Amino acid sequence: MTLPTPEEVRRVACVGAGVIGGGWVAHFLARGYDVTAWDPAPDAEAKLRRLVDAAWPALTQLGLAEGASRDRLTVTPTLELAVAEAQFVQESAPEKLDLKRDLLARLDAATPAGVVIASSTSGYPMTDMQTTAADPSRLVVGHPFNPPYLIPLVEVVGGEHTEEAAVSWASRFYEVAGKSVITMDREVPGFIANRLQEALWREALHMVANGEATVRDIDASITEGPGLRWAVMGPMLTFALAGGEGGMAHMLDHFGPSLKAPWTRLEAPELDRELYDAVVSGCDVAADGRTIAELVAERDRGVIDVLRATGRLGGKAEPR
Questions:
Q1: Is residue 92 part of a domain?
Q2: In what order do the strands lie in the sheet containing 73-75?
Q3: pLDDT tens across 75-114, in order?
Q4: Contacts for 294-303: CB closer than 8 Å, 24+ residues apart
Q5: Domain end position, chosen among 183, 200, 234
């Protein structure tokens, strides 16, 4: 089998058809791929097709690729049939390490040589999952966010025995398939976004447990506060704008000492010169030539758009 470039892929296999796997199926169908799917549950096909049907109106609103059709889905009776002609494989089994190891080894044995196999794991490093595969070099993590047909982010990273070419190929494929991709330089348990989510989640649980805030208070503190800004430019550039014209450097000079204040149960790292410089220079890179004034205007437009779209601007939301 001659391996295609990411742009040439036409057939994708999705193994595991629950909420995440089914979301992947819906996404790939909407992008115009032929999709084969397999899941061991006896009622998997009926549930999968209901999920795809439920997602299709949103996908239609987002814009379907030429040739996109729910009729291009084939649910197979075996894993081997699902991947027999696959040009890319997305595994989305439950988060059980032994199960992941066994399934990835089976996929490696059944999938045509060289075809990249990606796992939707939400936390396991690929190094821990690829231990029993005969060819671990093609196994990568392709971590999506729920629902995969709607949330664009995918975090891609290989394990110790993954070839760099497989990581690069997977990252490019996801981009071609309409995803926003972060290719990680190294493995970190939980990856990037889940670690940030988990930090917020744990602090929220502490606050509820200690009677410091209600669930409603916690959710409103994000949806009516920083969540609006994060939807536009994330926490780092958001904090850079808190420094005014001095940017992140001024923000760190002014607020850096508060890292030692008891604002969270997490222990803050030492704000030494190396970390200081890394954060400041990182914000310069992320700004990509935009001035503070331009970033402020971009943020303000974005927050207004989010408020308008969610009906919180004092008027009606835009027609959908």
A1: yes
A2: 73-75, 34-38, 11-15, 88-91, 117-119, 139-143, 153-158, 180-183
A3: 999 999 999 999 999 999 999 999 999 999 999 999 999 9
A4: 295/233, 295/237, 295/240, 295/241, 296/241, 298/232, 298/233, 299/229, 299/232, 299/233, 299/238, 299/241, 302/231, 302/232, 302/233, 303/228, 303/229, 303/231, 303/232
A5: 183
In angstroms, the Cα distances linking 45 to 14, 17, 50, 94, 150 are 12, 8, 9, 17, 21
- Binding site for NAD(+): residue ranges? 16-21
Assigned domain for 206 exists:
no
Q: Do residues 61 and 179 both lie within one domain?
A: yes
Number of domains into which the chain is organized: 2
Q: Measured in whole angstroms, how far is the alpha carbon of residue 158 from the centre of its chain?
A: 15
Render pLDDT for 13-49 as a digit per residue (tens, 0 to 9): 999 999 999 999 999 999 999 999 999 999 999 999 9
Query: What is the model's pTM?
Result: 0.85
Q: Where are the alpha helices (DSSP H) in 242-312?
A: 247-255, 273-287, 292-309
Pairwise CA distance, residues 124 & 121, whole Å: 6
- Can you tell me the distance from the alpha carbon of 249 to that of 277, in angstroms, rounded to the nearest whole number? 8
**CA atoms of 122 and 287, how far apart (whole Å):** 29
**73 exposure class (CB count in 10 Å sphere: 0-12, 13-18, 19+):** buried
With residues binned 3-state (H G I as helix, E B as strand, rest as coil), the percentages for the chain, rounded to 5, are 50, 10, 35
Residues 127 and 259 occupy one common structural domain: no
- CA-based R_g, the chain, Å: 22
Residues belonging to the chain: 320
Binding site, annotated residues: 16-21
CB 127 within 8 A of CB 158: no
Worst-scoring range by mean pLDDT, 98-107, 135-144, 286-295? 286-295
